Each structure stands twice: as structure tokens, then as C-alpha cells.
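Weekly modeling sync, notes
Attendees: S.R. (lead), two postdocs, one rotation student

Agenda item 3: backlog of single-chain predictions. S.R. asked that every request posted to the team notebook include the full sequence so nobody has to chase files. The rotation student volunteered to paste the first one in as an example of the format we agreed on. Action items at the bottom.

Example entry:
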Amino acid sequence: MPKGIYTRTDFHIESIRNGVKKRRPLNGAENPAWCGGRSIHSSGYIRIRKTEHPNTVDGYILEHRFIMEQKLNRFLNKQECVHHINGIKDDNRSENLMLFNSNSEHKKYETSRGNSNHKWKGGKPACLTCGTKISYGARSCKKHRPIKHDGKGKFIWHSE
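Predicted structure, as returned to the notebook:
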């Protein structure tokens, strides 16, 4: 008999006739990798599984937005922005959250308080450590940026 060709046994023929039962995917709590419906988004915010929520993305909603909705007893619209007062993205206590009507109001608040990711000086971002003006994509100046990665998850910094 040629390689790769086999004769069907009575078992194969019977399972084809009866219809092979396919395993259904294990969803939610049935899945061994289930973490209770909470995950961390790539941006650092916590997402929770709420499939019935009207503002879900792939069945998930950002937890800080959900907590603000519970606090206000209404759904948030897409323009509204929830701010973490202490700047910690996964600290979703209701007393740590503040609501803005738009993202532009949120940015105005951030720049007026000097709490944004960059300390703005004259319309240009500045290094968080020393205040030197930097380019828009950078987070710190060359002096406060790591020189190289040591391959073990740590950075080698400039000596000061």
C-alpha cells in the first residue's frame, strides 16, 4: 500500500455516519487559562469582561470607565475621559478617578497642573528628570536615557 493512504476501519466509517462530535471551545471559567475576566491592556489599563455592556470592545471594557459609570449611575459617552488623580493606571478606586467632558479638557488640566507625561515648556515637551526640552516622541533627554540594554532586562545608564 502506498505511503500516506490508509483504509478506513469500521470505527472511522461509523463515526462519519453518526457525525463526529466536535469539542466546543472552552470559554470563560471553563477555560484553564481563565483569569476571572480581568486582563491588562498593552497601555497599562485594566480591562474587565463585560459582554453585555454597550461600549465593549471585543467583550471587554476598561475598568476605570466602568467604575466611573457605577459611581454616576449612567453610561459614559465616548467623548468623556476618566483621569487617574495619582497617575497610576491600575489604581481604579472611585476616589482616585476624575471625569472630564472631553480629552481636550483633560489635557488642559494636565498641562495646568504639570502632571502630564511631559513637563511642557513653551509648547514643547521637557525631560521628566531635569526639565531640558526634548523631541515629541522622547520621554527623557540623552543624559537621562539608558545607553544600552544588558540583555537581562536591565538598562545601563549614563554615569552622573
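Discussion: group reviewed the output briefly. The first helix runs from residue 10 to 18.
Action items: rotation student to repeat for the remaining queue; S.R. to check formatting next week.
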